[in-house]
Write the structure tokens for this entry.
Amino acid sequence: MEGRFKKSDSESDYKYYVLQIGRKYTYVGFSGLHKPLSVYRTPDFFRYNESFHNCAEDKKGAYDVVGDVPEGEAASLRGSAGSADSAAQQGEDANQGKREKGSNQDQQEEDASQDQQVEGANPDPNQVSVDQAQREKGATPDQQEADASLDQRQNTPRREHRLPRSGGSKHEGSLIYHYEYKFHQDEKLWSKFFEEFTFQIFRKLIKTSNKAKKVIVLLNMFIPTIIKYSLCKSLIENYEYGSISYINDLVSPLFLCNCNTCVVIDLGYLSCRLLPVMNGMPLYHHYTYVDNGGFYINMEIKRLLKEQYVRRAQRRRAARDCEDSSASFVHASDGEGLTNVQNTEDGYSETPHEEKPTEGEKGETKTSQGLLNYYLDLYPLEEILNVIDSMPDDEIENMKMKFFYLKNEEAKLYSNKIVLYEFQNYEIVVEADTRWMACEILFTKDYEQNINFMFNSILSKLHMFEFSVFHNVLLVGGCSNIKGIVSKIAQSLFHALREKKKTSVKDLENRVNFLFPKISPNLRQFIGASICSNLENLPDYTQEHVHNSVLYDHLNEDVYLTFKR
């Protein structure tokens, strides 16, 4: 009986490869599996990289970008945006020295500018002189290096003088690469790049006993056609695969919940995207996105971490100046006792004071405040700021998934706990307010690049009969793992619905249903494509379709990608 129900799990039983190239991670595996076999760090072509995007004559830049791709096999996916950290850690360690060497000059410039912004954000006019003195004392060497770097850049002949130089191995600090205003049109360049990149991905899978002859590619249909076409063409021409098929990455998650009318919200690394699907047909003309996501949250985390140390140093300097000024005017007689002025409002003062016996919560507050002061004063200011700036993106992702969350203001659910995060033998303080304020940038980012504006925009586009798509809402992407994201999304959506004056929208708030497939949000697109790949209605593209331009036309039009139950 046991042999009768035993499942055969041989690799030869899986018919297709499944490939998803995301903004941060690339997943590859076989169809029918519940998780990818390997996870790779996606090269920096989604963000501006001069060594790649400006290499019209020197094609070596494409190979320099791919040469730094870290890899990991059989990654243990923990169901978070940072779940692929362990898979990419080996490649990160190998390239750490190279990355630090290549990004040292640009990183110092960012440190100087960010420190000035943080220090200048304090509205207290009494501390202006303290801030000015601190900036003049700490920013001099960085300013000299920045001036030297600026002179060097201006004297170097380049195609675009407005864009900073960034090496191929640099992941942190790169400019966002927006397809809307700049991308390289050289199809041969993109083909060479994807040829090298896919070789790095498939070079170990093709050695297995699996005889799969087809690759299912998960595509973002709103990137330039030249990029999608070059990827598919390189897979067809450079390997022994008989054919390929492609799937829309915002349609594939619907195969997990068997729902043909839904709003799919992708909270990704560089952007948040929204696509309504009605009766299995994606409404591409209602597609909405904003430039916001995990990348911006990580930047905000670093900014807030440095701000709390700078704020502590400013208050300590102000308290010290207050002591000096009061001591010069107060004269005590021999029989009188002198007590220094205390600043008890924020609890950051370290001046001597007479302890009074307290009980209960007052005693616990004093103890926790004393520990907070101890750890904030544990390292010199300049040293701890440099440590925070040197934290890699994967480390920030790990911190974000463990300790950061979105506060529920209506239910008053928030935490007052202060945590310590260990990084390279340093204990970094994460204050209670910092833990929830960083993720709020998803809803408060300027220039209408936030989720609140995205909901207002989609509701203004939809027609009366199309509002039924909001009966089902499905979240995908790494940022969907942030604690409290569902309640915050619902709060933002309901607020946008209340602002609509149409009568049919008033009852929609009670009909909104969030879908929760038993798959981690950052894997729902990949697993959905794995299920979809077993269907027979996906067309095959071969060498013939490349030569007669059918593949290019279909990628440009997206003629068949619909969801069927």
About this structure: Residues 1-8, 72-146, 148-182, 330-363 have pLDDT under 50 and may be disordered. The two ends are 34 Å apart (CA to CA). The chain has 19 helices and 14 strands. The longest strand covers residues 272-278.
